[in-house]
UniProtKB/TrEMBL annotation:
InterPro entries: 4Fe4S_Fe-S-bd, 4Fe4S_Fe_S_CS, Electron_Trans/Redox. Residues 1-27 form the signal peptide. Keywords: 4Fe-4S, Electron transport, Iron, Iron-sulfur, Membrane, Metal-binding, Signal, Transmembrane, Transmembrane helix, Transport. This is 4Fe-4S ferredoxin-type domain-containing protein. The keyword Membrane applies. Residues 348-379, 382-405 form the 4Fe-4S ferredoxin-type domain.
Length: 415
């Protein structure tokens, strides 16, 4: 019975994320009262740098970006033209994205904004495209390596099972996380990232961009990386997740003072946020805007703090992370929320051999979330697991491992 419910829920979610939204959504975009938004808000909305947009509008890059377009004397057509100018010289996918943005404002002729600005923007966009390509190529390689480490590399040496104290050397894990922060974060900039993939897909459905299927493809890329190993992209590939992991590992807060958040509340909060995101993105109450733009800490990696709220969220995440495991992932991130629904379908993950387990609770105490405890008690929909390997290091009787889900270990006796 449980199997049927899970299958129906998973199928519904897949249908929901892939359904083509009706054309009426496009019509809603045309009603945008653009001059009322701030320059920073418009830049965030259309995924361009506020400085580039200011320059394209013939303003100084240092202009107060919290003034509304109306105050700055910018009309809808000016904005549309500037957005097209920012897009000049981009490779096809990005150009299409901005064409979509322009159309959302009603279409019209374009005018340039100065060769220097265009060249600067073009160079920046070209570098970003190259960085994106490297990221999409290197993520599967990195996560393939981490999957091997979780399945065998952290557990066996020369074909022999390592003693518990030597399994899953924390230093190897931290070195990988640091690399992820440096390469997929600071070297690559704010994007691509799993959260953006989900957000952009729904933005495309809402008419912000053209070609929703392209964004669907990117979302499926991250979904697959989440399924091949239980939330593997969150656990080991996302730069923001990796940064929070590293901060949590710093001995700044005593272990007993750390806060473990109840999963049902974190899920509820993220569900509400995602619901709000859908309502505002599709403009169900008037002007369309993207809720996550103002609270997106991935901006840290591009040093883009166009909105005060972004800076505040970054500071809050950095301050909370040593005491609360992955505060942004657990409380806000829509991809973390979405990926939980796919945990049941993940090919590999934590397995507990209940015949061997002596019920000491060491894995539950080592786990920073409720995932190990829920798996221990045999919950059918356990809390989210980030494949962090902490529980794998502590079992005194080797009753827990990371392995293929289709070869499950024994069920708990109470079930
Ligand atoms: S849940 Fe965390 S790790 Fe996963 S995409 Fe979001 S920020 Fe990154
Ligand atoms: S410690 Fe918890 S989150 Fe980490 S792998 Fe184990 S069950 Fe998953």
């Amino acid at each position: 019975m449980h199997g049927v419910i899970k299958t129906v829920l998973l199928a519904s979610l897949l249908w929901f994320v892939s359904m083509p939204m009706p054309a009426v959504v496009h019509a809603l975009t045309a009603a945008d009262d653009t001059p009322q938004v701030t320059l920073a808000g418009a830049a965030c909305h259309y995924h361009v740098r506020a400085g580039d947009l200011a320059e394209a509008l013939g303003l100084s890059r240092q202009v107060d970006k919290h003034r509304t377009l109306k105050e700055l004397g910018i009309g809808t057509r000016d904005l549309e033209t500037a957005l097209k100018s920012v897009a000049i010289g981009e490779t096809e996918p990005r150009r299409a994205m901005h064409r979509g943005a322009g159309r959302g404002l009603g279409g019209g002729a374009g005018r340039g904004y100065g060769a220097a600005g265009q060249n600067g923007t073009q160079g920046h966009q070209e570098r970003q495209v190259v960085r994106d390509a490297y990221c999409y190529l290197l993520w599967p390689v990195l996560l393939g390596g981490m999957l091997w480490w979780l399945l065998r590399g952290g557990r066996f040496e020369d074909g022999r099972l390592l003693p518990v104290t030597k399994r899953y050397a924390p230093l190897a894990g931290r070195a990988t996380l640091l690399l992820v922060v440096l390469f997929f974060g600071f070297a690559s900039g704010k994007s691509p990232n799993p959260m953006e993939a989900l957000v952009k897909y729904f933005k495309a459905l809402a008419g912000f961009y053209e070609g929703a299927w392209k964004y669907f493809g990117v979302l499926m890329f991250f979904t697959l990386l989440s399924i091949v190993g239980n939330k593997l992209i969150c656990g080991w590939g996302c730069p923001l997740g990796a940064l929070q992991e590293l901060l949590y590992d710093l001995p700044l807060v005593r272990r007993r003072n750390r806060l473990r958040l109840p999963f049902r509340w974190t899920m509820l909060l993220r569900t509400l946020l995602f619901g709000g995101f859908l309502v505002f993105t599709f403009g169900l109450f008037g002007r369309k805007w993207v809720l996550y733009h103002g609270i997106n800490p991935f901006n840290l990696f591009g040093f883009e703090f166009d909105l005060l709220s972004i800076g505040a969220v970054v500071v809050a995440v950095l301050l909370l992370a040593p005491a609360v495991y992955r505060p942004f992932c657990q409380l806000v991130c829509p991809f973390g929320w979405y990926a939980w629904f796919f945990e049941k379908a993940s090919l590999t993950g934590i397995r507990i051999d209940h015949d061997r387990c002596i019920g000491c609770g060491a894995c539950d105490r080592a786990c920073p979330v409720e995932a190990a405890g829920d798996r221990l008690s045999g919950k059918s929909w356990p809390a989210e697991c980030y494949s962090c390997a902490r529980c794998l290091r502590v079992c005194p009787v080797d009753a827990i491992d990371y392995g293929p889900r289709w070869r499950q270990k024994s069920e708990p006796s109470g079930e």
